[in-house]
Amino acid sequence: MGMTITKQDLEQAQERIQSRIRQDSVLCKELILARPKNGGADIADIAIKIAAVDITNETHLSSARETFFLQGLAAVIRDAEDIDGRIERGDGTLVEDLSRKIKEEFGYNAFPFVSKYCSCHNRFVYGKSDFSVYDNRVHAWLLEYYKGTPVRREINKFRNMCDYVAFNSRMWQVIVDNSLTDVEAVRTKLDGYISVVAGGLNGQA
Question: Which residues 6+ apart lie within 8 Å of 143 measured at CB?
Fold first, then answer.
C-alpha cells in the first residue's frame, strides 16, 4: 500500500462535494426525512425513496426494470426484520440480508444500491455514519489501495458474495491505517474522498 490519506484530504474532498451538491440530492434527503420509516411503511413511500436514492447515487436500477418490479423491491425492504432499528444501529448484516433476498427473488445483485439506501437513511434520519457505500468506483479504488497485497482477492468477493460486513470492516481498516478514527462522520467523508479521487462526484447531500 503506497497510498496515504490525511484528514486534510478528507476535508478538501468534502468542500468540493458541498460546493457541487445537486438539487436532486437535496430533494432525496428531504424525501427520506419526510418518510423516515421503512418497516411496515406504505409501499409507495418506499418506492419514492428507492427512486430518489437510485437517481442521486447512480445505482442504475432502472437498467434492470425487466428483472424486478419497483413494488417488489419496496416490499422486500418493508418486510425486512427490524429494518429501522438495524439501520439506526448500523447493522451491516441488514445490507447482506436485503441484497441476498433481492438476488434470490429477482436474480439481480442490488448490493451497491442497498449499501447506499441504508447509508442514506443512517445519515439523514439518525445523523450517523455507520455504513460505507459500495460501488464500482469504491471497488476500483480499493484494488488500487491494496495493490500488490493478498487483500485484493478478498475485495473481489464483496459484491459477488454480498459480504457487506467484510467490506465495511475493510473500509474501517483503511480508516484505522490512516489514523482517521477521530474524524466526525469519517465513513461518509471517506466515501466522498474516494468519489473525488475516482473522478466522479456523485453530489450526495
Answer: 152, 155, 156
Backbone angles phi, psi at 44, to 5 degrees: -65, -40
Residue 82 dihedral angles phi and psi, to the nearest 5°: 50, 45
How far is residue 155's CA from residue 166's CA, in Å, rounded to a whole number?
A: 9
Question: Any long-range contacts for 83-88 (C-beta under 8 Å, 24+ apart)?
Answer: 83/38, 83/39, 84/36, 84/37, 84/38, 84/39, 87/38, 87/118, 87/121, 87/122, 87/125, 87/126, 88/122, 88/125, 88/126, 88/128
Give pTM, 2 decimals.
Answer: 0.93
Radius of gyration of the chain (CA): 16
pLDDT in tens, 6-36: 999 999 999 998 887 777 789 999 999 999 9
